Amino acid sequence: MHASLIRRQLGGIVPPKIATPSLLTSGSGSSLTPLVNFYSKLPKGPASAVSGGGIKARYFNGKNASAAPLVWTILGLFTFGYTIDYQSE
Questions:
Q1: In the prediction, which pLDDT does 19 show?
Q2: Per-residue b or e along 40-58, where b marks 16 or more CB atoms closer than 10 Å to that residue's CB
Q3: Where are the beta strands (DSSP E) in 1-64?
Q4: Closest-CA residue to 51 (of 63, 64, 62)
Q5: Which pLDDT score, from 0 to 100, does residue 80 have?
Q6: pLDDT-derived band at 10, boundaries 50, 70, 90
Q7: How far apart are alpha carbons 77 and 2 in whole angstroms?
Q8: pLDDT band at 15 (very low <50, low <70, confident <90, very high)
Q9: Rounded Cα–Cα distance for residues 32 and 14 (Å)
Q10: What is the pTM (predicted TM-score) of this model?
Q11: Which parts pass through the membrane (predicted)?
């Protein structure tokens, strides 16, 4: 892969470069205001719970988790296959 392609893909992940070495070594606290402003806008506390959809989130995750849908699906497929096989003789 080319370096420019990797740099473009990681552009959204890597935060902007606001703490330059010249800014940090100058010794004045007022020059760090862009850095302080950047970090003060970030969310604080634990991350919120992800509410995903789909079959796995509905039946296998959470406090009401159960493998019953999987068992019923397997039994249904077995019954369907057995019925087709039995009718063909």
A1: 57
A2: eeeeeeeeeeeeeeeeeee
A3: none
A4: 62
A5: 94
A6: low
A7: 49
A8: low
A9: 19
A10: 0.37
A11: 65-84
The residue behind tokens 């509905």 is 58
Is 15 in contact with 38 (CB distance < 8 Å)?
A: yes
Residues in the chain: 89
* Measured distance CA(61)–CA(75) in Å, rounded: 22
pLDDT tens sequence across 40-82: 888 888 877 776 677 777 777 777 788 888 899 999 999 999 9
CA atoms within 13 A on the CB side of 31: 10
Tokens linked to 17: 């470069």
CA dist., res. 68 & res. 82, Å (int) = 21
Q: Tokens 């988790």 — which residue?
A: 65
- Cα distances from 89 to residues 24, 75, 77, 80, 81, in angstroms, run 83, 22, 19, 15, 13
pLDDT of residue 35: 73
* Side chain identity at residue 56, one-letter code: K
